[in-house]
């Protein structure tokens, strides 16, 4: 089941740039959304949670568009350490987890 | 606070052999997940437990995969017999359970399985 679609990238951006990724989802019952960051050969780590229209945490902003069924992640002032794969996953309010997207690869270069 | 523990970290077996993975979730987390992550892809949900009951196992290949969560704490995932295409990282995650922040998942380091 392809519930989540992400542009795999890679997105190559210079340090200090602003970059945005989109994640589209098919299940309209999705209520909560999560962005995870995964470094090479490591486990995913929670980056940001979105329960309403959006969320902001420092350089990271997530925006939810329920009408078009996508969620975006904006990273401002990119750092070299932001290089990773970014995964999104929707979650139904009933308690059922849904599948992760394939992830978007970001490479921040000096 | 201790994180999600998994063992072994690496396993190499031959096809048609059996293998088992173990997961100990964060204390107090009611929900436990097993994912399969093939190189270059996102994690694929295999099974989700709420306490010791199965919430969703629709993507678990039940002819060869089995999982249990005895007493609602530790969990084991077994593959019998293994196929070449089972080579992947098997991730265990746990969450408090419920809505919103209760759905935030914390992952273990994973078990990297190679089937020869």
Can you put this structure into words, describing what you see?
The complex is a heterodimer of chains A (110) and B (116). In chain A, 0% of the residues lie in helices and 55% in strands. Chain A has 110 residues and is an all-beta fold. Chain A has strands at 4-6, 11-14, 19-25, 30-38, 45-50, 54-57, 60-65, 70-75, 84-92, 104-109. In chain A, 35% of the residues are buried. Chain B is an all-beta fold. Chain B is 0% helix and 47% strand. Chain B has no helices and eleven strands. In chain B, the strands form two sheets. In chain B, strands 2, 4, 5, 6, 9, 10 and 11 form a seven-stranded mixed sheet that branches. A four-stranded antiparallel sheet of chain B has the order 1-3-8-7, with no helix packed on it. In chain B, a hairpin with a 6-residue loop joins strand 7 and strand 8 (75-79). In chain B, 35% of the residues are buried. The mean pLDDT of chain B is 94. Chains A and B meet through strand 4 and strand 5 of A and strand 4, strand 5 and strand 10 of B.
């Amino acid at each position: 089941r392809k519930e989540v679609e992400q542009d795999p990238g890679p997105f190559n951006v210079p340090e200090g740039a602003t970059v945005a990724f989109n994640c589209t989802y098919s299940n309209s019952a999705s209520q909560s959304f999560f962005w995870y960051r995964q470094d090479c050969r490591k486990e995913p780590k929670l980056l940001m949670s979105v329960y309403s229209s959006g969320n902001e945490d420092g350089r990271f902003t997530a925006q939810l568009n329920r009408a078009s069924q996508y969620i975006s992640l904006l990273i401002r002032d990119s750092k070299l350490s932001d290089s990773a794969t970014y995964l999104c996953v929707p979650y139904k309010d009933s308690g059922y987890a849904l599948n992760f997207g394939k992830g978007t690869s970001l490479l921040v270069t000096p | 606070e201790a994180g999600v523990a998994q063992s072994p970290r690496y396993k190499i077996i031959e096809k048609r052999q059996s293998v088992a993975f173990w997961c100990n979730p964060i204390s107090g987390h009611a929900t436990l997940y097993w994912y399969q992550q093939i190189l270059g892809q996102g994690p694929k949900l295999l099974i989700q437990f709420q306490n010791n009951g199965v919430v969703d196992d629709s993507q678990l290949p039940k002819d060869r995969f089995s999982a249990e969560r005895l007493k609602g704490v530790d969990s084991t995932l077994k593959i019998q017999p293994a196929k070449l295409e089972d080579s992947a990282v098997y991730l265990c995650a746990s969450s408090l359970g419920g809505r919103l922040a209760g759905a935030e998942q914390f992952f273990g380091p994973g078990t990297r399985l190679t089937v020869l």
